Amino acid sequence: xxxxxxxxxxxxxxxxxxxxxxxxxxxxxxxxxxxxxxxxxxxxxxxxxxxxxxxxxxxxxxxxxxxxxxxxxxxxxxxxxxxxxxxxxxxxxxxxxxxxxxxxxxxxxxxxxxxxxxxxxxxxxxxxxxxxxxxxxxxxxxxxxxxxxxxxxxxxxxxxxxxxxxxxxxxxxxxxxxxxxxxxxxxxxxxxxxxxxxxxxxxxxxxxxxxxxxxxxxxxxxxxxxxxxxxxxxxxxxxxxxxxxxxxxxxxxxxxxxxxxxxxxxxxxxxxxxxxxx
Length: 278
Description:
The protein has 278 residues and is α/β, with parallel strands linked by helices. It is built from ten helices and nine strands.
């Protein structure tokens, strides 16, 4: 008889301890879940793709700002050999990146990213900086004639070059007397003289290559209109971005290279895309 109350007390004590332990573990698990939810997500890698008549150094002012803000940044050399070459090449760069990507294109680089990003689930946002954003089946040369205002056709010089198959291609250069007015009128003359001397030509076939995919149809997009652009008419940029349902900013007085003349505004737009899709 004397053992039963003692046994009962032990059972009550044990049951109470178990309940307290379960409560503690449940609370700890809930706290851990809250902590997990509040853990900052990894920042995306920013991939910056340049266009024709240029190289990756045009992104330098943007890169320094993005790196200051803690973003891993890649600015690959766009081959500028036409969409059938350039889009797969940039797609291979994207495939080498682990984790989320915000993909940015300038000028012809916009057409490249439009093709290269298709089917890549890591690309969370597209950012077009004074850029082409063609639809499937479109050609850039035809699109350039949609609105008046481009000086490119009257400013280029064609230079033949041999293709590997023995045929002859044509590289397009901007002439020295037209480079600044057509491409970068809001930059100092000394700067544009260096840019003209070191420009990378792009194949004339880029203007007739047919776009094979339109990534902006499935990936959220942002676009920057350069209001004094003499390469891609601002009206054409607005057309592209409206069609893509993009978030748009306009930079008053900007030439075709706002990432150089307005690097802070360009960086701000890229980081806006990061925040919206992170």
